[in-house]
Amino acid sequence: MNVVPLSTVALASPAAGDMTEEHARLCAAVRAAGALSLTFFRGSYRSWEKRPGQPVSEADLAVDALLRERLCAGGGYGWLSEESVAEEDRLAADRVWVVDPIDGTRPFLRGLPEYAVCAALAVDGRPVLAAVYNPATEEFFDAVRGAGARCNGRPLALADVPTIAGARLSASATALAHYLSPADHARVSFRKLGSIAYRLARVALGADDGAVSLNAKSDWDIAAAELIVTEAGGCVTTAAGAGLRYNGADPRHPSVIAAGPALHAALIRLLAAPPLSS
Predict the structure, then answer these.
(1) Could you say which of 3.40.50.300, 3.50.50.60, 3.30.450.20, 3.30.540.10 is the CATH number of the domain covering 11-155?
(2) What global pTM score does this model have?
(3) CB-CB neighbours of 2 under 10 Å
(4) Which percentage of the chain shows pLDDT scores above 90?
């Protein structure tokens, strides 16, 4: 697969017009944020729980501040981030940066290379620019709506598989055991990494065939990764098959499924059926 220089990609979207400058700013900011995160990774820093079961650290806040400074330079954008105080004026903004400074804080705190810096530009509720960066593994994913997705500059085109049996799923083996027969369950290769954004990006890369989370996710968890998957030829919806919109009053989504079209349809059918066990 040949590397395509970003300068040769037509960075235009019908919804957002020419995005060359914003795309360059996004990629530079997310790379800088990833480099900053590595100065904390496996080091000594403070961490605490902002709410029970929701850890945060000095690294999250430092990366959030860097991204906001770089991405919002010049003004004119709304801001929606996991680690910033909610700003309701974002609801009236046409263009909103949707950011998770460190998606996968738990593995980050444990020194596991399963986290990602995520940022997307949403226009009228849909992502048009995206970057997901795992600096610990040196995987940098980016996408422009209508211009494809890349990992480290290489264009992505995910391979679809037709059936769940035999698929490589980034999902909870326990959760899907309620829907799959024991024989089909045994034929699935399960893996579950800490960052949902990184898990979706790996689907676009072809490292996994699909990703399933039946737990609620927020805009900042999935907006950037959704664009990367869809621009690589995949589908991303809730488990009920509903499409995703971002920057609403409630940033939560009940679940998320990402896969190639055939496998995605098979997963939707599976989860629409009554569980085999509970």
Answers:
(1) 3.30.540.10
(2) 0.92
(3) 6
(4) 81
